[in-house]
Protein: MazG-like nucleotide pyrophosphohydrolase family protein
Organism: Anaerospora hongkongensis
Amino acid sequence: MAKKQCPNCGITWLELSIPVEGQKTSCMCEKTFVFQNGNWHEGFPYFEEYQRLAERTANNGQGAMQRLGNFGMGIAGETAEFIDAVVNFEIAGGNHEAMIKEAGDVNWYCATLCTTAGISYQVVVEAAEEAAPALLYVCIGRLSKASGDVTEYLKKVVYHGHELDQAKLGKLIGNVLSWMKLFCKRYNLNMQDICDTNIAKLKQRYPEGFNSAGSINRTI
C-alpha cells in the first residue's frame, strides 16, 4: 500500500490504490477532494455519495421499524468484529486489511441507519469530533459502549414504542464514529478508503443490489 497526503492539513495515510481521474476522497480534517488533472482539488460531499451507495445493498424489502431493529443489531455485531480485528493486529500479527474490512461494515450500518431515520450521514460524520486519545483498552471499551448505546436506543424505539428522535440517534451514531476516527488515526487509516473498500466488496457480493440468496450463500 502506498501513502497519500492531504493537501489541506498534510496528514499522511495509507492508500489502497493509485488515484485515478475523478476519484473522490476525504481526510480526517473533514476536507473533501476530487482527483483531477493529476492533483487533489477540494470540494464534494463524499459521505452523501457513500450513503447512497450503501443503501443500494440494504434490504429494501423491510419496513422502517424492521430495518431499524436489523441495523441496530448489526452495528453491535460489526463493532465487535472490528474490535476483534484490532486485538488480532496488536497481539496476534493481524493486518490493516482486516481492520479496514470490519471498519467498512461498521460505517455501512451507520450510513444505512441514517438513511432509514432520514438523517444525513455527511452531517453526522462531519459533526463527530475525533475522540481524545486514550489507552487501547479504554478506546475498545468506549467504542463498544457507543455501539451498544445505539442498539439499546433502537430497542426502545422498535420494541418499546418510544418515538424516534433523529437528533438523538444522529448523536449516538456520531459517538461511534468519534471512536472510529480515533482508531483510524491510531492505525494511519483513512475513512474514505475504508468506505471505498466496503462499497467495492458489496458491489461484488450484490452486483444487482441486495438479495436474500446472495446473503445466504455469500463467500465475500
